[in-house]
Specification:
Blueprint: H1 3-15, E1 24-26, H2 27-33, H3 44-66, E2 72-75, E3 78-81, H4 84-111, H5 123-142
Antiparallel strand pairs: 1-3, 2-3
C-alpha cells in the first residue's frame, strides 16, 4: 500500500464533499476509489490483503484529518467523521490507552533489576510526569466551565 492510494482517497473524499463533521462515507465509495473488489469467495489471505489496503488508505486519511481537528472511524457499512462534540470521546480513548501503556511500562521498569554500578536514569520520572499530564488534561475537560 503506497501513500499515493491514501492521497487519492483523500482527494476523492474532498471532491465528493465527504470531509465534514458528522458525514457518513459508504464503504462502497471507499472501495471504489481504491479499486478494491471483494470477491464472493477467496482465501483468507486474499481477504486480508484487500482489508489491509483499505485500512492503510483510511489510516492515511485519518492522520491527515487529525491535523484538521477531525477523526474518521469505522462504523457499520462504512466510515463516519465524528462531530466536534464526539471528538472529546476519542481524545479520552487515546489518553486512556496512553495511560494504560505508561502504567504497564512503569510496572516493568519497577520490576526490572538494576545493574550494579549503573547510574539511574530519569525514565520513571518522565513516565510519571506524562501520566500526571494526562490526569490534569482530563480534569480540565471534565470540569464544567464557571457560569
Amino acid at each position: 500500500m503506497s501513500r499515493r492510494e491514501g492521497r487519492e482517497l483523500l482527494a476523492e473524499l474532498e471532491s465528493g464533499n465527504f470531509i465534514d463533521y458528522g458525514v457518513f462515507i459508504p464503504v462502497e465509495f471507499v472501495r471504489e476509489c481504491l479499486d478494491l473488489e471483494y470477491p464472493e469467495t477467496a482465501t483468507k489471505k486474499e481477504f486480508d490483503q484487500l482489508a489491509l489496503k483499505e485500512m492503510a488508505a483510511v489510516d492515511y486519511v485519518r492522520n491527515i484529518l487529525l491535523g484538521r481537528g477531525m477523526y474518521i472511524m469505522g462504523v457499520n457499512a462504512g466510515y463516519r467523521i465524528l462531530t466536534v462534540s464526539e471528538n472529546l470521546g476519542q481524545v479520552e480513548q487515546y489518553m486512556s490507552s496512553a495511560d494504560r501503556k505508561l502504567a504497564r511500562g512503569l510496572k516493568l521498569l519497577k520490576s526490572t533489576p538494576h545493574e550494579r554500578g549503573a547510574y539511574p536514569d530519569q525514565t520513571e520520572a518522565r513516565a510519571e510526569m506524562k501520566r500526571e499530564n494526562i490526569r490534569s488534561h482530563r480534569n480540565r475537560h471534565q470540569t464544567p466551565p464557571p457560569v
